[in-house]
Amino acid sequence: MVSSKEDGFALASRIDTQASANDIIHKLESRTIPRISAIANMAWCERAAYGISFLGVQSNYLPGAGDIGSAVHRIVIKSTLEIVQSIKNCTRICKSEAMEIFSTNAKEEVDVNWKFYMLSGIEQPLPIIMEDLKIRADRLANQLITHHNDSYQKLLLRPEFTIRNPKIPLEGRLDLLKIRLGEPVPDSCKYITTDDLVNLNIEDIEIVQIKTGKARPRTPRIYLQADAEALLLMETLKLKQPPSYTWQFADKDVKHKSFKFAKVHQAIDKFIRLWKAQESPAITGYCPTCPLKNACLDWHFARSDKLSFEDLTRRRAAFNLSRKIREEISDTDRWKVYVSLRNAEERHADGWALTGLKLDTSEIDPINQQIVLSSAENRPFGNFVDFSVGDFVTVSDGNPNLGSNPTAIITDIDLERSSVKLQSIRNDLYVLTHDNRQTSRFTMDRFDFDKGLTTIRYLDDFFRQSSYADSVLGQGAALAATVT
């Protein structure tokens, strides 16, 4: 994606003056960075990170397990925020009341997301969720209510904290960020935006990653993921010391005590080389719990001189196909198209974002998980060229690459009122209302779920920022006139 006019001119100088619009599209490079969850697989199996598909080999992953884990994740975060906020507001809460908050949020979660559970084949999700929560809520309720109001006045909680840092490069999401300040927040009624976090006097910062079920041994993959998340947070917030890191299981909290950042950099470099097809994955074939073990041992990763001609041909065909796929298709699950690095006002002027939005607190619909964002002071939407009903969008403080930024879908656009109605995808609108965030101003960017329009948007960005686009358009107009 072209991020400035200078970049546009530089690109124009590299393109032949006879280039077609299609040629320009293929010369534009999107900002893509790997997810931490992808590079973490490097510690377990390069084949897993590489993502080769073995036909006929099925995973033994339990259907619906991801939905249950996500539900527990949201319930715990939402309940924690509610309890801490109540104590901050000088409301006394006993243990039974705290546990009731967990139970109420669990029932609400099932009521809101029942369709997801039905599609996953889970007929009775609540009892499964409560197996974890009965243990976890009892333990967390004690922890949360024993802290005093004075202690919480120095605490900032940031749920679902997303970080995309192109300099490392990595993208990760932290379940819950606990930021303890050296002094109480100056204005408790004002939400501290993510860009302001860097300027705070941070005494301690803790990453909490929520894991479903009772504590179990950590694998090399889990350790590498924790190291990468800590590194990402340190570099982004310019921390002098590594943060505290906690895996929160149902029955206990487990601390990560030492970090190996060198391994993170090595994994990133190797992952990118694999993705660019500069190397092939190294597989031992002896992963004790891997469902692909037999496939690895049988032919895919045996020595070439041990393979029959048919198996060798099959291996080459599989690698060639995989390489072609990686070169031509961006895997959404592992790679993100990076949002333009221009500021919110510039993106608004170009129609790529809407900024200066306020949350209409009178139209919050918790049952249908819908909110309305309207333009502050009746500010016009500008070009508004890249949004339509059904689009996925990210709501942020202005920087969609950093912070607690939920994803939603546009369900209605009212140009007369300069307002947009959004519906949450997974019951996470609480991140827009906790800690008085509803008083802030928001920015809405289009989330790149629709890969079909990606190249069109890159070309559109190039046309807006480069004078060379005029000659391309002129050539197209002249050609059209000749044909007609």
The N- to C-terminal Cα distance equals 34 Å
User: Proportion of β residues?
Assistant: 15-25%
CATH classification, class level of the largest domain:
Alpha Beta
Total domains: 5
| Helix/strand class | alpha+beta
CATH architecture heading of the largest domain: 3-Layer(aba) Sandwich
What does this 3D model show about the protein?
The chain has 484 residues and is an alpha+beta fold. It has helices at 5-14, 21-27, 36-39, 46-50, 65-88, 95-112, 114-119, 125-146, 149-152, 194-197, 220-237, 261-275, 293-300, 309-328, 344-349, 454-465, 468-483; strands at residues 32-34, 155-165, 170-181, 202-210, 244-248, 253-255, 335-337, 353-359, 370-375, 392-396, 402-404, 407-414, 419-424, 442-446. β12 (407-414) and β13 form a beta hairpin. The longest helix has 24 residues, at 65-88. The protein starts with a helix and ends with a helix.
Element layout with pairings:
Blueprint: H1 5-14, H2 21-27, E1 32-34, H3 36-39, H4 46-50, H5 65-88, H6 95-112, H7 114-119, H8 125-146, H9 149-152, E2 155-165, E3 170-181, H10 194-197, E4 202-210, H11 220-237, E5 244-248, E6 253-255, H12 261-275, H13 293-300, H14 309-328, E7 335-337, H15 344-349, E8 353-359, E9 370-375, E10 392-396, E11 402-404, E12 407-414, E13 419-424, E14 442-446, H16 454-465, H17 468-483
Parallel strand pairs: 4-5
Antiparallel strand pairs: 1-7, 2-3, 2-11, 3-4, 5-6, 8-9, 8-14, 9-13, 10-12, 10-14, 12-13
